[in-house]
Amino acid sequence: MKKIQVFWGGLLALCPALFVLNQKSGTVIKVYLTTVLLFLISAWFFKRKSTVLLSLALCFVLSLSVVTSLYFHFEFDTAFSTMMATTFINTSQKESIDMLYYNYRYVFWFAIIFLLYVSLSYYLSRRVTERKLVLSGIILLLYTGISIFLYTVSGKTRSEDFLISERLLVNSPLYNFSPIVRAYNDAKLTDIVMQAKNTYDYSWQDKGIDNYVIVIGESARRKDHGIYGSDYPTTPFIGAQHGSMLLFNQAIAPAPLTILSVPASLAKVHHADDVPLTAWADNVISLTNDLKLDTYWFSNQGGVGQSNSLITAMAKRAGHHKWNETIGFDSSLVNELAQVIPEPEEKLIVLHFYGSHGPVCERFPRSETIPFTVDVYDNCYLNAIAYTDKQLGRLFSLLAGTRPSLIYFLITGWYATRKNTRIITIMISAIRPNNLLISRCLSGTAAQSMPLIPVGRCFQINIQPVITIGCSVTGWVSHITRSVVAVCHSVIVIRHHRLSRSWTAIKGDLIMMGYRLKGGDL
Question: Which helix (H) or strand (E) holds 348?
Answer without folding.
Answer: strand 347-352
